[in-house]
Every structure is written in structure tokens, then in C-alpha cells.
Specification:
single chain, mainly alpha, 89% helix
């Protein structure tokens, strides 16, 4: 059986190891969530960009350049056009 000071030291070392493991696990989880959020943000940004580009292409194809110009500055009008083109 180890002496009291050695047992106390062993106990403190085990607590530090436990805290280090908790910190390591927390950092892994934080890193995973950070990357997940970044991936989701990139995916959503790409989807929004594609939606806007599709609207612009349809308006150009239909010769509706005045509507395109208005949609760029008027978000409510842009939304109306999204609905009109089912985008």
C-alpha cells in the first residue's frame, strides 16, 4: 500500500488526466461542430447562389431585363419572381 503522500499525488495526477481527457473530447466535438457549420454554410450559400442564378437566367432567356434589374434591387419583387418561376 502506497504512503499517504504518494496516494495523494496519484489521486491528483489521475484528476489532471481526467480533465485533460475531458478537454480533448470537448475540443474534438467543438472542431467537428465548427466544420459541420462551415460545410452547411457553404452548401446553403451554393444553393442560394444557384437559385438566384437560375432566376437571372430565366429572366434573360425571356427577355425580361427590366424585371432582372428590378429584382436585383427589390427583394420583395425578387421573391415574387421566384414564386412565378417556381424556384
Amino acid at each position: 500500500m502506497p504512503s499517504a503522500p504518494i496516494a495523494e499525488m496519484d489521486y491528483l495526477v489521475s484528476q489532471v488526466k481526467d480533465r485533460a481527457e475531458v478537454t480533448k473530447n470537448y475540443m474534438k466535438k467543438w472542431d467537428y461542430e465548427l466544420h459541420l457549420r462551415r460545410d452547411i454554410t457553404e452548401e446553403v450559400t451554393q444553393q442560394i447562389t444557384e437559385r438566384i442564378n437560375n432566376l437571372h437566367k430565366k429572366l434573360i432567356d425571356d427577355g425580361r431585363l427590366d424585371d432582372l434589374t428590378k429584382a436585383v434591387t427589390d427583394k420583395d419583387y425578387q421573391q415574387k419572381l421566384f414564386e412565378e418561376y417556381n424556384l
